[in-house]
Amino acid sequence: MKFEEKTFVLKNGQQALLRQLQPTDAEKMLEFLRETSRESDFLLRYPEENIMGISEEVQFLEGICQSDNKIMLACVIDGSVAGNTSLRGNDFRKLRHRGEVSLGVRKAYWHLGIGRAMLTEAVALARNLGLQYLELDYIDGNARAKGLYESLGFREIARIPQAYRQPDGTMADSVLMRKCL
Ligand SMILES: CC(C)(COP(=O)(O)OP(=O)(O)OC[C@H]1O[C@@H](n2cnc3c(N)ncnc32)[C@H](O)[C@@H]1OP(=O)(O)O)[C@@H](O)C(=O)NCCC(=O)NCCS
């Protein structure tokens, strides 16, 4: 999928760039994934579980860039990846009306409008793909994510009880949300 890069201004006045991730971003992206998983318990992986090497990440990003129903966007600030969103359409015909989105933002940049900007773009791209539903899931207790998703029209449709065991041993549901496009 193609995406015309665009700039926007964060709530603190800084300039941010939204652009498609390229294979040349592999190293930056791996660093981003390690850092975000260190900063939040609301992501799937522990930092040491981000085990993809550079060449695998290059291959992965090449595949995404060549795909006509998947895209990874980065929010870049001063040359660093501050946020990332991934939109994935389905390849199987019975599932092609549905797509999935996920996102993450470096903690230093929370509350500045990056999540909202990236998710808004992902919704527009999903509409352009002709998807009927855009879906995501979050770990129960993630109030910031829930608030953002609800404000953009996502609604809870299902839960997997006790889907996650958090570092302190408590269990948390996986909450599935959907937006009708
Ligand atoms: C969740 C996350 C993506 C949000 O990104 P962000 O850039 O901080 O979000 P934004 O600043 O664009 O918007 C935050 C919105 O969340 C909502 N929000 C923020 N804090 C909230 C809270 N405590 N309760 C309810 N809603 C809240 C508001 O709607 C806010 O929008 P507004 O400021 O325009 O009113 C980011 O915090 C993050 O990456 N967290 C760690 C990883 C993660 O949880 N990823 C999502 C996995 S499902």
Overview of the structural elements:
With 181 residues, the chain is an alpha+beta fold. It has one domain: 3-Layer(aba) Sandwich (Aminopeptidase). Helices cover 28% and strands 35% of the residues. The chain has helices spanning 26-39, 54-66, 114-128, 143-151, and strands at residues 6-9, 15-20, 70-77, 80-89, 98-105, 133-139, 155-165, 171-180. An eight-stranded mixed β-sheet has the order 1-2-3-4-5-6-8-7, sandwiched between helices.
Question: Gist?
Answer:
This protein is of the alpha+beta class. Helices cover 28% and strands 35% of the residues. It has a single domain, classed as Aminopeptidase (3-Layer(aba) Sandwich).
Question: Which helices and strands, and how do they pair?
Answer:
Blueprint: E1 6-9, E2 15-20, H1 26-39, H2 54-66, E3 70-77, E4 80-89, E5 98-105, H3 114-128, E6 133-139, H4 143-151, E7 155-165, E8 171-180
Parallel strand pairs: 5-6
Antiparallel strand pairs: 1-2, 2-3, 3-4, 4-5, 6-8, 7-8
Coenzyme A is lined by residues 40, 42-43, 103-105, 110-116, 138, 142-145, 147-148, 151.
**How is the quaternary structure best described?**
single chain
> How many strand segments?
8
CATH homologous superfamily grouping: Gcn5-related N-acetyltransferase (GNAT)
CATH class: Alpha Beta
How many domains? The number is: 1
* Total DSSP helices: 4
CATH topology (fold) name:
Aminopeptidase
Radius of gyration: 16 Å
Arithmetic mean pLDDT: 96
Tell me the CATH architecture. 3-Layer(aba) Sandwich
Largest sheet: 8 strands, mixed
**Global geometry:** globular
**Element order: H for helix, E for strand:** EEHHEEEHEHEE
Helix proportion range: 25-40%
The chain-level structural class is alpha+beta
Strand order of the largest sheet: 1-2-3-4-5-6-8-7
How far is it from the N-terminal to the C-terminal residue, by CA?
A: 18 Å
